[in-house]
Design goal:
The chain has four helices and 18 strands. By secondary structure, the protein is mostly beta strands. The strands form four sheets. The chain has a five-stranded mixed beta sheet with strand order 1-9-3-7-10, with no helix packed on it. A hairpin with a 7-residue loop joins strand 14 and strand 15. Pfam families: Cu2_monoox_C.
Length: 384
């Protein structure tokens, strides 16, 4: 099954404190003003550590997004070349959204040297800058190596941990543009950039990988709402119309994955259990939802002796997202279980400025800002 991404999806998110009762939490998911205003500048990066260097990469040119298929969201991929002539490790990154009013989130994929020509052909064969890319980058064998969402900044793990970057690797910048505030027309141009932290002394480095833990969203309309999209089948079809068959099929694929094919159990809280296939060590975790999110949690072996909570965000805030390093690395063993649990609140649709006026809908997994996600991210290294 293709990667369940969009971060939405994003290695990104952190607890923001406050009440542990999601029903009593205020509408913290809403930005203070505008679509996602107030994120144009970022704090200075931490000093370089031994063996590290910075390299800044920008989009090739300014781009004015246009949401396809009558929607209000565009996912656009831009190809950038770090011009690596020897192996390096990506040990940190700091994304700088140039037009933060329309940049919802960004994900960065490493393109292996063997797939570089495929990526260049895809870029050259698409009119304009970059290409449309709902889901992943659209390039075979891509690897998630960095991401950003509002509130995130560069977060560093141990200096000997990083993502491998072989010589000749390229990077795809996947940027999710949210045009909800304008109803779909362009909200201005954007030329965002990213500053990479690279370590060229690779002999003592341990490679990182990011595992994704998606869970279903089966959020019905509130009792006070009605409309054609309050029907689940109509809502699923609408996601497919806006984002294509691959994304439109995520809702039913997640039921097969997480509920073993059982019928949808509509409600605000959903979860998914995933078995751990092999020994590994977890260094950081994250979670991603959209504007209807109330809380998200990642647990290890829930209900079993020695159970641990790796991430607990009892009062989710879309505008406060940053990677969450663990105080102490956690070792996973084969046979362990990771669970991600999300709670969403359909009543926020009538409270948040960004969503007021949008059609009531049965909310399932979708790539749009008015759709939802429940995505846990686990940053780990395989262990011997």
């Amino acid at each position: 099954m293709k990667r369940l991404v969009a971060l939405a999806a994003v290695v990104l998110l952190t607890a923001c404190g406050g009440s542990k009762d999601p029903e009593s939490a205020p509408s913290a998911a809403a930005p203070a003003s505008g679509a996602h205003s107030g994120h144009l500048s970022a704090p200075p990066a931490e000093p370089l550590r031994a063996g590290e260097r910075f390299q800044s990469l920008s989009m090739p040119a300014s781009y004015t997004p246009k949401a396809p298929n009558g929607g209000t969201d565009e996912y656009r991929c831009f190809l950038v070349d770090p011009k690596l002539t020897s192996e390096a490790y990506l040990t940190g990154s700091q994304f700088l959204p140039q037009n933060a009013d329309i940049v919802h989130h960004a994900i960065f994929f490493r393109i292996a040297p063997g797939s570089a020509d495929e990526a260049r052909r895809l870029d050259a064969g698409t009119p304009g800058d970059g290409w449309t890319c709902f889901g992943d980058s659209g390039v075979e064998g891509d690897t998630w190596v960095a991401s950003w969402a509002p509130g995130a900044n560069e977060t560093l793990l141990a200096p000997d941990l990083g993502y491998q970057m072989p010589p000749g690797s390229l990077i795809v910048m996947q940027i999710h543009y949210n045009l909800l505030a304008t109803g779909g027309p362009a909200g201005g141009a954007d030329r965002s950039s990213i500053r990479l932290r690279l370590n060229d002394t690779t002999s003592a480095m341990t490679p990182l990988q990011t595992s994704l833990l998606p869970a279903p969203i089966e959020l019905p309309c509130t009792p006070a709402e009605s409309g054609p999209l309050c029907d689940r089948a109509a809502a699923v079809a609408d996601v497919g119309k806006r984002f294509g068959e691959e994304i439109g099929g995520q809702a039913d694929r997640l039921l097969r994955l997480c509920a073993k094919g059982a019928p949808p159990a509509a409600g605000p809280t959903q979860h998914c259990d995933r078995p751990v296939p092999g020994r590994s060590t977890v260094y950081a975790v994250a979670g991603h939802m959209h504007l209807l999110g109330r809380s998200i949690k990642i647990e290890l072996n829930p209900g079993r002796p020695g159970a641990q909570t790796l991430l607990d965000v009892p009062r989710y805030n879309f505008d406060d997202q940053a990677i969450h390093p663990l105080a102490k690395p956690v070792v996973l063993q084969p046979g362990d279980t990771l669970r991600v649990t999300c709670t969403h609140d359909a009543a926020l649709r009538g409270q948040l400025p960004q969503l007021k006026g949008t059609a009531p809908r049965y909310v399932v997994w979708g790539d749009g800002t008015s759709d939802e996600m429940c995505l846990g991210l686990v940053i780990m290294t395989p262990s011997a």
